[in-house]
Design goal:
Blueprint: H1 2-19, H2 21-32, E1 33-34, E2 41-48, H3 56-74, E3 79-81, E4 87-91, H4 95-147, H5 153-207, E5 212-217, E6 220-225, H6 231-245, H7 270-279, E7 283-284, H8 285-298
Parallel strand pairs: 2-3, 2-4, 4-6
Antiparallel strand pairs: 1-7, 5-6
Helix pairs in contact: 3-6, 4-5
């Protein structure tokens, strides 16, 4: 009789185990297997250099645009803003941003000068062509009357008047040519300055090619953005560094967010998507704990035996 009472609870337990196998298994998996993507990583705004002329809220909007590139692919929010967030994001103004701004300013000046010079040069060419045509006609008229032994008094006075007008026009055209040469010299100087600035910028890029960087130091996480030429480029750079915050490394696809060179890509490549799946893969907390234990024990020094 006692055996029946002992077997009955066991049978009930086994039946409940069969009935609730799926939810129990899901619950156990939820406890034993974790992904770093289960909980959104938090970010905060650090320092924004005043030269960028960007508010905290504007910068947060740009970071959200960048983080959504990853979140929309994963189907879950991977980053969220918090005043006390774990990842500090900074806009740092350095020599590259200064040179980039100079290039933009010089480009604008060069375009303005070119837009001013082009119509002036076209008008000068038109006047010069007209002047040469009328000068040729004047010389032909003078030769005609000279071949006749001289022009009548009234025609002579007209020819003299035309000659005087041509001298004045020639002087005016010469002044215009001098002015155009000066303007062209200034334009060429601007072109030279622009080229030198571009060379300096490229030299800086070869010395420090990254537009931003992700730094992990003793648990502290920092993203520094050094310069941006456009909103698209800024969003790309932020997305790239956020990828590093997700522990995603560079890949060789030039269309990737995680391509190591500067681009304006704002969509994930197949390589990016694959790396995101890998980094967000659930891992056993037991095996992770075992790994940490092995590291701890491997660092424990052996006890020396007494002689």
């Amino acid at each position: 009789m006692k055996r029946i009472f002992i077997l009955f609870p066991i049978l009930v337990f086994l039946m409940l185990g069969v009935i609730f196998k799926t939810p129990i298994s899901a619950y156990a998996n939820g406890i034993l297997y974790k992904s770093q993507c289960d909980t959104p990583k938090t970010f905060r705004i650090g320092k924004i250099d005043s030269k960028y002329n960007m508010t905290d809220s504007q910068f947060i909007d740009k970071i959200n645009l960048a983080s959504n590139i990853w979140s929309e692919e994963y189907g879950k929010n991977l980053f969220t803003y918090s005043p006390e967030g774990d990842i500090e994001v900074n806009l740092v103004y350095d020599q590259r941003q200064f040179l980039s701004s100079q290039i933009s300013d010089l480009n604008s000046k060069v375009k303005i000068q070119q837009n001013q010079l082009d119509p002036r040069i076209a008008e000068y060419k038109r006047k010069s062509a007209d002047f040469r045509a009328r000068a040729t006609q004047l010389n032909n008229d003078i030769e005609f009357w000279n071949s006749k032994g001289g022009a009548p008094d009234d025609e002579f006075e007209r020819l003299k008047s035309r000659q005087e007008n041509f001298r004045n026009e020639a002087a005016a055209l010469q002044q215009e040519a001098t002015s155009l040469n000066q303007s062209a010299d200034e334009y060429n100087q601007q072109i030279g300055q622009l080229q030198q600035t571009v060379n300096n910028f490229n030299e800086q890029l070869s010395y420090k090619p990254e537009e931003g960087e992700y730094i992990y130091n003793n648990g502290e996480q920092t993203i520094n953005i050094y310069f941006d030429n456009s909103e698209t480029q800024l969003v790309h750079t932020l997305a790239h560094e956020l990828g590093h915050a997700l522990e995603i490394s560079h890949n060789a696809n030039e269309n990737s967010i995680m391509y190591p060179q500067s681009t304006e890509a704002t969509t994930l490549s197949a390589a990016d998507k694959k790396d995101l799946q890998i980094t967000c893969m659930k891992k056993s907390i037991i095996s992770e704990f075992e790994t940490k234990l092995k590291i701890i024990f491997s660092n424990i020094r052996p006890i020396a035996a007494k002689n």
